[in-house]
Amino acid sequence: MVVRDRDRINRLVGLMEEHDLDYIVVFDEVNLHYIAGGIVDYSACILSSDGVIYLVTPPMEFERAKLVSWVDDVYMYGGDSPKSIKADSLVAAVSRMVEGNVGLPFNYITHGQFNRLTSSNHNFNVVDCDSLLLRARAIKTSYEVNLIRDSVSLVEDGLEYAINYISDGVSELEVARESIVYYYKAGADKVYSDLIVASGDRAAYPHGRASEKVIVKGDVITLDYVASRGGYWGDVTRTVFLNRVDEELRRVYEVVESALNEAIDSIYPGVKASDVDKVARSVIEREGYGEYFLHSTGHGLGLEVHESPRLSKKSDDVLEANMVITVEPGIYIKGLGGVRIENDVLVRSDGREVLNRLSIDLLVL
Ligand SMILES: [Mn+2]
Fold first, then answer.
1. What would the pLDDT profile of 24-33 be if each residue is shown by its tens digit?
2. How far is the CA of 306 from the centre of ligand 1 (A)?
């Protein structure tokens, strides 16, 4: 049995009341983890407006569901026990358990599930609760912040390991594979399947997943590592140099470092996420590299690597205390290479706290 994060459920119930929802139903792993407190396969989680949480599972997951979650009760579809719902599918079982206004996160439900839920005889209205869940998840409870702190620390341990492992003649894939083994030995429950190890001119690809390319002296190397311990992700990027630094890339590094620092200094509750993006972008534009900053400045971090809020030009999000966000400006120049530096930041009522301990000073191996 897992101890419930009551703050999170209370906030959800408050939002349900605001939106006049009687139930929220989720089938996907991320939102199920969020509401039930653990991951159970082939299942649905139902939260009622009075704060009671149920899981509906197949018989094979019934016993485990109680151990790995904090739900009040578990039912099974199929099987023959007092806890069985007489229904031939998960969706049919769920549709018998809810009524009134039922929130479903439309971006997290399959078309098939949606059709089956709404085409059978049912006694409820379906409402999209995507933004409600994203909004709830964007603001972390202290329980969640502690888990993210631990994952950021894990990711940094792995980055240090990788930086020590890099030498003239090893391939990007060798670095990535060694790092994945390191992470699992260090207690990771998940490692992002494609770690980014982009060296030499490949560092000009923002998502340069590790390749067969061999790292050689004179290379710039961008390592963007993502791993979790306890379900919540840490996401940290460092760019290092092997043996020597190209003069233009040294300048680029200084610009990205300033963009990162200035963007982080601009973080306060009440600031528009688009304004933090603007701060990072204007530093890079001022130095003449505007056209080489190919992505947004950052994103929320939690049960998903990329979640609300979004730190981009077009974002309508406003930063609030207890959001956890990444700040990751970068400059990418075709044929030369690139630099990205990424830190993870907790928005606090008095400003912000950088969760990283790993230095961002230019590092030559
Ligand atoms: Mn990121």
1. 999 999 999 9
2. 7
